[in-house]
Amino acid sequence: xxxxxxxxxxxxxxxxxxxxxxxxxxxxxxxxxxxxxxxxxxxxxxxxxxxxxxxxxxxxxxxxxxxxxxxxxxxxxxxxxxxxxxxxxxxxxxxxxxxxxxxxxxxxxxxxxxxxxxxx
Length: 120
Fold this sequence. Notes:
By secondary structure, this protein is α+β, with helices and mostly antiparallel strands. The protein is 21% helix and 38% strand.
């Protein structure tokens, strides 16, 4: 199941863990990424809290936790090579995995159709 936030994060549920990243649209708006800062494993976030930072040649922006949870894994590949986010934002360019604290929060996120409608 793939869900989206108004802030252009995506979330893919895999059992009791959610994989989180930024959307194709977000990476296109940012341009070439030059730096990624990920949260520490074990850190917990409330839904909507800033969880990671990305910097591009244009801007630095926060990546927000789309749901509440605890970080169980981060993608060190994108720290070493931020361009992975540009080339495969919804695949190898994922940011972190959260242990889902409240599954009902997922219901408040947009499906792909609603997200595309938001983009216009």
